[in-house]
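Long-time lurker. I teach an intro course on protein structure, and each term I like to show students one example going from raw sequence to a predicted 3D structure in token notation. This year I'd like something fresh instead of my usual example. Would anyone be willing to generate the tokens for the chain below so I can use it in lecture? Attribution to the forum is fine with me.
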Amino acid sequence: MGRTQTATLLSANRCNGVGRMLSRVLVATLPVRKTVEHANVNVYFQTARDLLYKYFGQLELLELRFPEIRVNFPWRDAFTDKIIMQTSIAYEKASVLFQIASTHSAIAASQSRSDPEGVKRAFYYFRTSAGMLSYINENFLHAPSTDLSREVIKFLVDIILAQATEVFFEKCADEKKGNALVSKVAAQTASMYTTLVEDVKDFMGKGIFDRNWVTIIQVRYATLSTSQHEYMNADHTTSCRLKASTSNLLHNITADLLMTLRGSMVTL
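-- Reply from a regular --
Happy to contribute to a lecture. Here you go:
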């Protein structure tokens, strides 16, 4: 998931002091944007993230000092492949935040889930990715492109949160938490994916997502649903063993009231 930038067209009024200052700011900003343009391809995700943060900071400064600036900011829509050209810094900021969220999602997906620290990082970056996308929906209205539309952003937030919840499920399972708890987390994750199945089919019908999205989400739902029932059945089996053991213990006590019970209770 990510947006693609195209060549930047700059125009500035060079006839006065403000124009010359603006020109210098734009000249300083352009190289960063050029570097960001290929960040996800040519550098590691963490470096791409740092470059995007740097560029976003420059945009904040530019907007603060020159609120009326009009510069052409072209982006290629992540899903329709159409080039969208806007002159609003707010649009550029929203697009950069989208890129940062995409990078955080990529960092999360690249973590080793067999490593406890990797699991923590995956959960953290999925959550921050979802948070940034939510910020776009809350602060940037009337998106001119499909990928920044409220409906698509909300769907992306939901699918990323589903992945974060799946990471939490894996953590609970790896740490041998109680079967009932693990089953509940699996059920919650499966429920999140099953809601997404209907949404992604609707988007596929509109030509936004392809069939692969539907298949992947259906597979994730089926996997988590199966895990839910496995842990539920395991919890039921453990409960039955506990009841049988308790029944036998009561029988033995009744049969021989004089027997002294020694030792600690065994955890079943």
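Some talking points for your students: Confidence is low (pLDDT under 50) at residues 6-23, 238-268. Strands lie at 4-5, 73-76, 83-86.
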